[in-house]
Amino acid sequence: MAFDDAYGALTDHADDARWAYGTGFTDPLAGVPADLPDGVDRADLAAYCLMLGDDALIMSHRLQQWVTRAPELEDELAIANIGLDLLGQARLLLTRAGTAEGAGRDEDDLAYRREAHEFRNVRLAERDDADFAQLMARLLVFTTWRLALFDRLSGSRDPMLAAIAAKGVKELTYHRDYAAQWVVRIGDGTPLSHARMAAAISGVLPLAGELFQAHEVELRLAGVAVDPAVIRGEFDAVLAEVLTAATLEPAELPEVPATGRDGEHTAALTEILAEMQELARAVPGGAW
Amino acid sequence: MSDEIRHEWPLFEVFVRAKRGLNHVHVGSLRAADHRMAVQHARDLYTRRNEGVSIWVVLSSDVVASDPDDKAALFEPSADKVYRHPTYYAIPDSVPHI
């Protein structure tokens, strides 16, 4: 059997028996109707997909920056895997945003040809991490919130959004477990590691408040989007359980405006975009 | 630094059972602080390409191996016992799947 490329061979289901391991790859969106559900505002759905897609895209880039800098080889691969999972979520969500918008923009247009003020990610996703404890604290908050959100979103009235969320739930369950184990290990470790994790948690909490400020788009998309108020209880319970196991103080989330959702970002996002978009801007339309 | 601090995580051996495989097969080794982390790392290192449905990890120091110096006494006595192989016997045509 001849294939044009190696990937064609890997995804060929009919001839699975040639492989000792693997294959059996599946398309999570196979058979999911791409039409927009009735009565849903296109602009609102596009904005909502952009929010969730940008969260994943920017968080993924921050994780990718840890490759070659992780404390252990095994953790470097784990962090890269998590970054790749989130990049996959970003691709599907940005594609959906482009479809809903209906202006002909694809995932690359949205990822590489927007300015910082057009990004809709929460500020939590863009912050730089000074050490591994800060990365794990931020990953715990991000994945605890996103898992609770995607769990509800898998029942969305938009079948495409529901399918993307259902795929993401399995990935995020692992991401959250990975981050939680490290927060507990570092928190319940030596006096030095405990102090570092306590500082990391108190440093990330001001950014977590933004996750629960309902945006008008989220409220208008009832039945399609998830109202963050619905997942607050699960978020608080999971975080409390992990922090208790890590012998850390319980978390208090400050009330802060959801500025990232309206395109107000820190200088950190500008730095990320300068790196992430450099090649695409230098070689427009380049393909390899 | 006190002597109690380990500067390197212990080594684990990883066994993965493939979808169509009946037994777990040794695929490699990794370092981890404990067994739970070893399973997590094994998932990240050895099942990224859809390889496995089950993982075992064992501390490398718990593996008891035969001594290479005993190779002659352990393995060579079986070298001339050709009758232990099914190919030694004539297979009747009515028995197709041996």
Automatic annotation (TrEMBL), chain A:
<dbReference type="InterPro" id="IPR012347">
    <property type="entry name" value="Ferritin-like"/>
</dbReference>
<dbReference type="GO" id="GO:0005829">
    <property type="term" value="C:cytosol"/>
</dbReference>
<protein>
    <submittedName>
        <fullName>Phenylacetate-CoA oxygenase subunit PaaI</fullName>
    </submittedName>
</protein>
<dbReference type="InterPro" id="IPR011882">
    <property type="entry name" value="PaaC"/>
</dbReference>
<dbReference type="InterPro" id="IPR007814">
    <property type="entry name" value="PaaA_PaaC"/>
</dbReference>
<dbReference type="Pfam" id="PF05138">
    <property type="entry name" value="PaaA_PaaC"/>
</dbReference>
<dbReference type="GO" id="GO:0010124">
    <property type="term" value="P:phenylacetate catabolic process"/>
</dbReference>
<dbReference type="InterPro" id="IPR009078">
    <property type="entry name" value="Ferritin-like_SF"/>
</dbReference>
<dbReference type="InterPro" id="IPR052703">
    <property type="entry name" value="Aromatic_CoA_ox/epox"/>
</dbReference>
UniProtKB/TrEMBL annotation, chain B:
<dbReference type="InterPro" id="IPR038693">
    <property type="entry name" value="PaaB_sf"/>
</dbReference>
<dbReference type="Pfam" id="PF06243">
    <property type="entry name" value="PaaB"/>
</dbReference>
<dbReference type="InterPro" id="IPR009359">
    <property type="entry name" value="PaaB"/>
</dbReference>
<protein>
    <submittedName>
        <fullName>Phenylacetate-CoA oxygenase subunit PaaB</fullName>
    </submittedName>
</protein>
